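Lab notebook, bench 4. The sequencing result for the construct came back, and we need a structural model before the next group meeting so we can plan mutations. Quick request posted to the team channel:

Model the 3D structure of this chain.
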Amino acid sequence: MPASARQGAATVSDGEEDEQIRRVRFFSPQDLSAGWFVERVAELTEQFDEKIQPSSAVEVIEIHNVVQFLKHDLVPNRYTAVDRERAMARIPQMQGVVARYFSEIDESNFAKRIAGVRHEGRVDLLDLLGQARAFDRCGAAFVLPVLDAAGFRLAHLLGCKKLVAAYDSEVRELILASPSGAAFLVQKHLLSERSADLHIPRSLSTTECRELLESYVDSESANPNYIGLIATAKEDSRIGLDAKLKLRAKRRSDAMTADFFKENTGFRSAYEIGISSSQVEPVVVEMDDSDDGEGFVTRFTYASTWLEQTVDFPSILNNFQHLFEFLDGNGLLALPSYPAQLGVADRIFTTHGKHDYLVGTAFNAIDTSSLLQMRLYLHFLDSKGIDLEAVISWFFEEYLVEEFGVTNFSFAPSGNGTTYLQKVRHVFAEMESVVKQFTLFAEDGELDRDLLSFRSDLVRYKAVPSLLEGKYVYPVEGSELEAILYSLFSDQSGLAYISEDLRGGNAAKLLLENNVTYTDFADYQKGSIDRLVELGIVENTGDRVRIADAIQFRLLQALFFTQAAVYFHLPPRGRSLVDDWEEKGWVTRNGTLLSEPEGQYFNYFLNNFEFSNGPALRNKYVHGQQRSDTGDHSHFPTYVTALRMVIALVLKMNDEFCLRSQEAELGAKDPE
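Done. Here's the predicted structure in C-alpha cell form:
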C-alpha cells in the first residue's frame, strides 16, 4: 500500500480533483467549513503512523491542518472521552513529522520538496518554511525564482513575515518594479482587513512609498476602489500620504467613476415621496420593481389628512419618531449604519479603509429616504407657516419647562432672511450649544448658564453623559453571549442551513419559520444546539427546536442588530436577564446620551475625529472650507442634514427625560 493511502489520503480512483477537495483545510474554529472536515480529520488521525514519511508537501500541509483541528477539539460528536484522548495524544507526533519534513529542506531539494502545492496551500507552505528557517538556509536568488515558477505571486510572499525579513531588499525591488506594487501599500496601511496579513520590507523608504503611490494614482491599471481609499484615507506620514496626494487621488477617482458610468448604467434604485389627499393610512410604503428587472423604486406616500391634523408642535416631533421612524421602539436611532445591516455584497464587494465608517445598501437607503422625508416635511410645514427651527426652540425653551420642570435650555432659530449658508453655520453652532447644555445638566442636575459660558471644550458626541446610570447594555467582546448572537442571527452561522428545504437567512429565522426537529440537524451542528438548549436560549420539545423565551429573544435581537439595548426600556424580565448576564461577564453597561453606534453616526457626518470617509460637515462649515462659487441653494442639502441631526438629538434627549421621569415614578411607588 502506498504511504499516502496508509496516511489516510484519497485513493487513486478518487482522482486528483476529488483528493484536493477532500483535503483538510483549517480556517478558524467558527468557520462554516469546519463541520465538513471533521470526519476526514478523524480518518487521518486514526490512520496516522509517525514512522511513515510523507511523500509530498501537500500531505504534510494537510497533517499540519489536522493538528489545528485537534488543538481546537474539532472532532466528530461520536467521539468518546477515550477517543478524544487518543486523538490528542497524536498531536506531538504529527507536529514532529511536519517539522522534520521542512527542517531537511535546502537548496538541493527545495524545488522538489515544495512541488505540487496549489493555491489554497501556499500560505501554510510559506509559514512552515519560515518556521523551519528554510529561508535562512536558502538564498533569495535561488528561492524567489523557484517560487515564481511554482505559481507563487508577490501577494503570497508578502503574507510571510519571515520570508520578507530574510529577503528584505529583494522583496523591496519586486514591489518597486511596477506601479501595481502600490496596491500592497494600500492594503497594508489603508485597507481595513488586510494589514495583519501583509508585511512590507523595512528598507522601503517613505519617499519610495510616496513615489509609488503617485505613479499608481496615474496608472491606467489602477483599481478604482484603491484610488478611492487613497482619496478618503487619513493622512499617513509613513507612506507619504498627504493632502495633495489625497486631492490628486480624488480627482482621478471622480474621473474614473464618470468614465465607468458612460459605459455602464448599473442597477438603478430610486425613491419617490409624496402626499396623497385620498389616502387613509398615515403612510404607505411600496416597492416597484417593474423597471424591466434593471432597478426598483421605493415609494413613500403620506396622507395629507394626517399631516394636516398634526401641525401642533408636539405632534410634529412625534411624526419624526413614529411616522418617519427616526427612533425605534427601544429608544435607538434607526439612522446609523449597523454592522448587522451589511449584506454579503456589502462585505465582499465593497472595499473599506481602516478608518472608514462602514456603510452599505441598507444604510444608504435609510439615509436617502430620511433626507427626502425631511425635505418633504420642511416644505409642508413651510406651507403652513411653520418653521421647524421654531419647533426645536419650543422643545428646549417651553416643553422641557412645562413637562419636566427643566429650565435654562435654549435654541435660537436662524430666522427668516438668512441664506442657507448662514443657516447651516448657525444650526451647527446651536446644535453644539444644546449638547453642551445637556452635558452640564446631566453632570450637575441643573443648567447654570454662567457656567456654560466658561465651558469651551469640544463636543464629544460619544461621551455626552446620560441622565440615567447604566443606560445602555452592550455585549462583551469574546464572551459566550457574542457566540450566541453569532449562532442565532449571523447570515454566516453554521446553524442557518440544514438542507435546501430547511434553511433560513439566519438560524433564528430557520427556527421561527420552520418546524425543525433536533434530528434534522447534522452531527456537527448538534453541539451548538445542545449548548443553546443548556443556556436556555432555545428549547427542544421533542417535536421541535424553538426559541425558548420571547422577551429574551427580543433582547438578543437588539444586541445583535443595533449593538445595544436600553436597559430602562426593558420589561422586568428583560432587566433581570441583563442583571444575570452582567454577573456572568456577558454584557456591560454604561451611561451616555448616545449609544456607541449613534455616537459614531454623528462623528461620521460632522467631523474627522473618528472616520476619514465622512463629509465632516460641521468642520467644513465652521472653518469656512466650503466652496463659495456654487450658489446659496447648493447649501440647502447640508441644511436639511443639519436639521436631521438636531431632530435626532431632540428625540434622544426627550427619551432620556421621559425615562428619567418614569424611573422616578417607579422609585416613588417602590422605595425599596
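Confidence is low (pLDDT under 50) at residues 1-18.
Will bring this to the meeting.
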